[in-house]
Amino acid sequence: MYELHYWPTIQGRGEFVRLILEDAGADYTDVMRGPDAEGREAMLALLEQTGHFAPPLLKDGDRWVSQTPLILDYLGARHGLTPNDEDERREALRLTMLLADFLIEAHDVHHPLAKEFFYEDQRDEALRRAPSFRDTRIPKFYVYFERLLAGDGHFVGGTTCHTEFSLFQIVEGMRYAFPNTMARLEPDYPNVTALRDRIAARPGVAAYLASERRIPFNEHGIFRHYPELDA
Amino acid sequence: MYELHYWPTIQGRGEFVRLILEDAGADYTDVMRGPDAEGREAMLALLEQTGHFAPPLLKDGDRWVSQTPLILDYLGARHGLTPNDEDERREALRLTMLLADFLIEAHDVHHPLAKEFFYEDQRDEALRRAPSFRDTRIPKFYVYFERLLAGDGHFVGGTTCHTEFSLFQIVEGMRYAFPNTMARLEPDYPNVTALRDRIAARPGVAAYLASERRIPFNEHGIFRHYPELDA
Question: How large is the angle between the packed helices A123-132 and B123-132, nearest 10 degrees?
Fold first, then answer.
């Protein structure tokens, strides 16, 4: 029985954790979306109490885990999605961390100046940043992952690991935020999109995607669709 | 015998690795600074050949490791700076990853739009971003680490781990880039500055800091001193 503590109205970083929990059929509570949820102040108090910096937080018994890639590594080890071999485990974590780095860029493209400013107050700067993100950064990351998948379609050890769920979520988010750009770019990355389809078809994930548990993408999350930033 | 592969003219992310190697008195070659260094094209070819995304890269025998926090975790495990206990090891890695996140913000404050643009071409945007970084983000991170150190001055297990070297380097870089701001803020964080002094006094680190092996901070690196961004 796990507890996931994350903001209740966005996919955000919590979604990377939810995908693993749902795929595994794990028994978990999405605490801030439950009937007893107490909102933002309770989250800040929880961070203070546990000594963690930011959500998502995973609670497993008496143990608290944070930093999204470390949560994925931790859960994966318990549900067959983290390699046992030390080198392979490090490789999966490395790639999941790299996707987390890309996620920061996918956020900062619409918030180049500060999280505290509204989008509308940094829209001009976002318009200047977006072309470089679309034309340079997206291809740099997608090319890299495309090549790693060129063998058997897996990143590590010939089998599915948590990195594949992270890439699935990146592909989903990028399609939402940059539909024109990704429609243009994706044909160059057939291994990446095939992986996306394979993860989406896993029974636990497919059931989750069709459920109301999955929060729709929206303009409060990390991936936001602002047409002026798309191609 | 390790090989470190990193850009030869900046401290950058490579410095976090150098500090651990120097503290441990490890036998290593800083390849791109050596007599046989081949420059940028050779680095790009190496990334292609090894399947890694970006430097720094550490070579240990036949094994290549990248993503700075994972290099530190890896080296620490071999030189007494990574806890053996699984939960403590995850905690050290979590905090080192959090400092790596802060490092991105310390870079993006002077490059809010794109790595490919010169500073001068995004100076106006940097001027808009800097106050939020100085007044909100720096205190948020420093307060957090200050509190974690409030007990015995260590992050994990009552002893020194790789996270402390990362925080040392952050303090050093922030002093260089934001001398006025940090002179104003640092008195509020005595545990952080005491840790900085303790790491600086370790024999391997002290010898390194006094040597020519340590590249001076400069305006090509991650931490840059632009007076107009300081208070």
Answer: 120
Domain layout of chain B by residue ranges = 2-78, 86-202
pLDDT score for A27: 98
Backbone angles phi, psi at B59, to 5 degrees: -110, 130
Sole residue written with tokens 């090894």:
B50
Spatial separation of the C-alpha atoms in residues B145 and B189, rounded to whole Å:
9
Residues of B in contact with A93 (CB under 8 A): 67, 70
Query: ∠ CA(A151), CA(A156), CA(A160), 5° rounding?
Result: 95
Structure tokens at A41: 């102040």
Half-sphere CA count of B177, side-chain side, radius 13 A: 24
| DSSP H or E stretch at residue A45 | helix A40-50
Residue of B65, B67, B116 with shortest CB distance to A97 = B67
**Distance between A74 CA and the closest CA of chain B, angstroms:** 9
Check whether A230 has a pLDDT greater than 90: yes
- The CATH architecture that domain B86-202 belongs to is Up-down Bundle (1.20)
Alpha-carbon gap, residue B159 to B26, rounded angstroms: 20
The whole model's pTM is what? 0.97
